[in-house]
């Protein structure tokens, strides 16, 4: 064999061997790759098994806390609750930032929880809830929120009190602690109804006072119900109501007492029948008593009356009068009109002379302990909400908002002051 042939054969053999080597290398690489994929698949399979196993241990119970975490200006009444689906609550704790526990109750079916009472304003609370599904696996949820602040909320101070018994002239009067700009929204959140079926309408005297009454006096023996659904109502920009309550009061017998300043007598009627006529002494000519329908808003067995507090002042700055033990006094106006007992005046003035600074005086005894005196009798037979009508006085008619005296406004005027 020639050298050239030998070299070509060796080259061919080398090429063949190289091809085998290369092929082997590729095959080897493929084998290595298959082993790598098999290892990854095994790893993935193991992770999937772990995930599946973990999923099997996860509770199906789903807890929801209201309000959402971080919420502010939250209602202090009905804004807080915990609910669960696909499970039952087993424990709920609620605490304020100072560590005070808030009592609450899990519903009988285990599906919800809520606080037992009203929350405090401007307070941050934390809730921690635990629930279990049908297999006993537990779920947990936590949340926190802050209730509405006094600066961002309003309340209405009202009269009469819940459960009280009042006279037929007693309006529902609400005084708000902040000016109300959305009167319609607030008024819609308040309903006043009577068992007598009388129509009851609200009247705004100002941005902070809203009264309710029927066209005529309440029917004697009726029950009046006021519902305050002001929780969350925006009464002014960024200022929300917090009250959610129902108030009821009953109306007593129909007692109306008519003071005739000219004849200096008072006629007391109950359910339309005269039960007593009492001699009185009304305001002197220089300080006459207001005319009009007035409602007794307060009663005091004894009280102090100082003229300086209502504008009757002497040159030395002291009141024209200062009587520290006025017996059987009943307020008729905010400005200081009372009907009260008088022990310092002579017996002869009652029924014959008007001598007061604008009040209506009845003969009485010092100490308010003589039930035989006219002042004592009238006091003992009157209740808050009874009507006292003054007529034939040289003074003007009292303003409807001076006390609980909206009856001095006719029905059309009254309804015109409603925001709805």
Tell me what the structure shows:
There is one protein chain. 18% of the residues lie in helices and 37% in strands. The protein has helices at residues 3-57, 183-188, 374-380, 411-416; strands at 62-66, 71-74, 81-85, 88-96, 104-106, 112-115, 124-132, 138-147, 153-154, 156-159, 165-166, 172-176, 190-194, 200-206, 209-214, 223-229, 234-236, 239-241, 244-251, 255-260, 265-270, 273-279, 292-295, 298-306, 322-331, 338-342, 360-363, 387-391. The protein is of the alpha+beta class and 420 residues long. The strands form 7 sheets. The protein has a 5-stranded mixed beta sheet with strand order 22-21-20-28-23, with no helix packed on it. The protein has a 4-stranded antiparallel beta sheet with strand order 1-3-6-5, with no helix packed on it. A 4-stranded mixed beta sheet has the order 2-8-7-4, with no helix packed on it.
Strand order in space, largest sheet = 22-21-20-28-23
- Main sheet: strands, sense, barrel: 5 strands, mixed
The percent range for helix content is 10-25%
Measure the end-to-end span.
124 Å
Can you count the beta strands? 28
Output the number of helix runs: 4
Structural class: alpha+beta
**Percent of residues in beta strands?**
35-45%
> Shape from CA axes?
elongated
Mean pLDDT: 89
Low-confidence runs (pLDDT<50, min 5 residues)? 1-33
From the structure provided, what is the oligomeric state, counting identical versus distinct chains? single chain
Radius of gyration equals 42 Å
């Amino acid at each position: 064999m020639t050298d050239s042939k030998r070299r070509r054969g060796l080259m061919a053999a080398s090429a063949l061997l190289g091809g085998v080597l290369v092929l082997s290398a590729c095959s080897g690489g493929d084998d290595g790759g298959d082993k790598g994929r098999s290892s990854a698949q095994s790893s993935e399979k193991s992770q999937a098994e772990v995930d599946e196993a973990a999923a099997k241990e996860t509770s199906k119970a789903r807890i929801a806390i209201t309000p959402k975490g971080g919420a502010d200006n939250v209602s202090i009444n009905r804004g807080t609750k915990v609910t669960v689906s696909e499970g039952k609550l087993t424990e709920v704790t609620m605490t304020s930032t100072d560590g005070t526990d808030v009592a609450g109750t899990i519903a009988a079916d285990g599906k919800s929880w809520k606080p037992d009472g009203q929350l405090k304003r401007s307070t941050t609370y934390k809730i921690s809830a635990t629930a279990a599904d049908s297999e006993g696996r537990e779920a947990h949820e936590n949340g926190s929120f802050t209730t509405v602040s006094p600066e961002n909320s309003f309340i209405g101070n009202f009269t009469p009190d819940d459960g009280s018994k009042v006279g037929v002239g007693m309006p529902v009067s609400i005084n708000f602690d902040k000016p109300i700009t959305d009167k319609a929204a607030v008024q819609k959140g308040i309903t006043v109804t009577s068992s007598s079926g009388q129509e009851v309408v609200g009247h705004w005297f100002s941005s902070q006072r809203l009264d309710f009454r029927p066209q005529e006096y309440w029917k004697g023996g009726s029950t009046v119900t006021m519902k305050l659904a002001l929780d969350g109502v925006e009464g002014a920009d960024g200022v929300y109501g917090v009250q959610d309550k129902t108030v009821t009061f009953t109306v007593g017998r129909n007692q109306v007492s008519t003071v005739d300043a000219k004849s200096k007598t008072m006629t007391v009627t109950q359910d339309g029948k005269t039960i007593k006529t009492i001699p009185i002494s009304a305001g002197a000519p220089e300080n006459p008593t207001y005319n009009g329908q007035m409602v007794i808003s307060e009663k005091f067995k004894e009280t102090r009356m100082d003229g300086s507090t209502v504008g009757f002042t002497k040159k030395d700055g002291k009141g024209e009068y200062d009587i520290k033990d006025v017996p059987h006094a009943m307020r008729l106006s905010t400005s200081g009109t009372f009907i009260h007992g008088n022990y310092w005046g002579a017996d002869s003035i009652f029924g014959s002379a008007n001598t007061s600074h604008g009040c209506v005086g009845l003969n009485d005894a010092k100490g308010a302990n003589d039930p035989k005196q006219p002042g004592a009798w009238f006091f003992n037979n009157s209740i808050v909400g009874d009507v006292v009508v003054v007529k034939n006085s040289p003074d003007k008619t009292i303003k409807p908002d001076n006390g609980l005296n909206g009856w001095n406004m006719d029905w059309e005027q009254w309804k015109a002051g409603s925001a709805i």
